[in-house]
Amino acid sequence: MDPQLIQTLGDELYAALRERQVVEPLTSRHEGIGIEDAYRIQQRMIARRLEAGERVVGKKVGVTSRAVMNMLGVWQPDFGYLLDGMVVNEGESIDARTLIQPKAEGEIAFLLKRDLMGPGIGAADVLAATECVMPCFEIVDSRIRDWKIRIADTVADNASCGVFVLGDSAVDPRRVDLVTCGMVLEKNGEIVATGAGAAALGSPVNAVAWLANTLGALGIGLKAGEVVLSGALAAMFPAAAGDNFRVSIGGLGGCSVRFH
Question: In the chain, where are the structural domains located?
Fold first, then answer.
C-alpha cells in the first residue's frame, strides 16, 4: 500500500478518536488492505497519540476467542498498544460521551516484572516474567461505523482499543489455574456472561506468549512494568450512561466499572 495512503488513514483514525466521530470501514473503501498494511496504519495512529503526549504502558491481545475469529473470518489474534490516556481506576465512573460506541469485556491482565522478547517464548517464560495477574475490564471502542469491522479494520484502529480498568487485587499467576478459572460478568446486577481462562487461546498465558513472539518477530519487546491484556473470556456487551459492570474471576477477585 502507498505510504502516503497509510499515513492518511492513520491520521483519519486519529482524528476520529479525538473528535469522537466514526469513519466508514477502511476495507470497504480500499480493497486489498492486508494485515501488514493495517499494522502500519495502526503505527501511524499510535505515533500521533505519542506526539500528543501520551506514552505506552502496555499491549493488548485481541481476537482470541473462536466466536470473534468466526465473526472476522480470521484464525489468528491481533494486538494493539495501551497508552496512559486509556487507564481508568477501578470503580471510577467513565463519561460515556468520551467514547464512541463502547463495549465491555472481562479479561485477565498480566503485569510484567521482566522483559519478554520473542521468538521462542513459552508458557514457562511468561509465568517467570509475570509479577501478578488481576481481573480487568477492557472497554473496547471502534472508530469504524456500527462496528462493521473486518480484521484489517480493527488492526488499523489499534485493535479497537478504548480504555481499560484493572481490578484492585493482584495474584501470583502460579497460585491460580489460569485455564480453568471461571469468570462471571454482570451488567446492572444481572449475569450476562460466563467464561473461563481457556477462552483466550486455551490459556491467557498462551495469549501472552503469542504476543511476545509476534512482537519479537517485529523487533518489539514486552517491557518490565508493562500491562498485557490477554483477551476476552466471553462476549462483549454494549455500555452506555447509567450502566454498571462487574467481573469476578475465580482465584483472582473482581473489577467494577460504571458509566455516566
Answer: 3-259
